[in-house]
Amino acid sequence: MSGSDAVSARAHVSVEPLSLDRVARAVRDPRAGALVTFCGVTRDVELLEYEAYVEMAEERIAAIVAEVAGAHGLCAAAAEHRVGEVPLSEPSVIVAASAPHRPEAFAGARALIDRVKAEAPIWKREVEHGERRWVEGVRP
Amino acid sequence: MEVTVRLFAMLRERAGAGEVTLELPEGARVGDAIRGLGEVARGIPVVMAVNREYAAEERVLDAGDELALIPPVSGGGGHP
């Protein structure tokens, strides 16, 4: 990617349900021949309940999106995280990366989700039969 | 100087409040603020965020800084 090319970068944290289509549309780019998306979904429990330091999470995710787009030569990148209750099988996080070819798109999407999980100030607890338990995390 | 530290997740529950106010000497550092919180962070590997960026314990604080004590993060779906 040359320095003059604009990179579209989108980061969002909200209580609204996530839309894979919306995130994928955000990384459409005429230079891109590859578009990779990843959804992290609730599994094994009735629901996960997410809490975030929203202002910082949006800034950190925006920084991650911009850094990963630059490092992997992406055309565009986006990441959205839902907070509040996320029921079984619904997505809590979606990332998308577009690039001229698939190696960069896959590597970029992988870096996006790995870094969002490790760095964004977001916490979750499992809710099952009315019991709530914080999920063990990683020190950012 | 007086600083306010926002708390989240298990730290918020442990403190029974979403923020706590600390009185610190001028020139105090992030590490002083963490120690000033006492029991709230005991046994939890925390990181302080200053003005929405993760900060080292040596960082000197200003009265107007936005502080938040960050416990281990667990964003994303499923389990770690």
The largest sheet of chain A, given as strand count, sense and whether it forms a barrel, is: 4 strands, mixed
- Overall radius of gyration of chain A: 15 Å
Approximate strand percentage of chain A: 35-45%
Q: Mean of residue pLDDT of chain A?
A: 93
Instruction: Please tally the helical runs of chain B, counting DSSP H or I stretches of 4 or more residues.
Output: 2
Average predicted local confidence, pLDDT of chain B: 94
Major β-sheet of chain B, in short? Answer: 5 strands, mixed
List the helices and strands of chain A in order: EHEEHEEEHEE
Which word captures the global form of chain B?
Answer: globular
Structural class of chain B: alpha+beta
Strand ordering within the main sheet of chain A: 1-4-6-2
Contiguous uncertain segments of 5+ residues of chain B: none
Cα-to-Cα separation, first versus last residue of chain A: 30 Å
Overall number of strands of chain B: 5
Q: Stretches of chain A where pLDDT falls below 50 for ≥5 residues?
A: none
Number of strands of chain A: 8
Give the spatial strand order of the biggest sheet of chain B.
Answer: 2-1-5-3-4
Write down the oligomeric state.
heterodimer
Biggest interface in this structure?
A: A-B, 39 and 23 residues
Structural class of chain A: alpha+beta
Percentage of β-strand residues of chain B = 25-35%
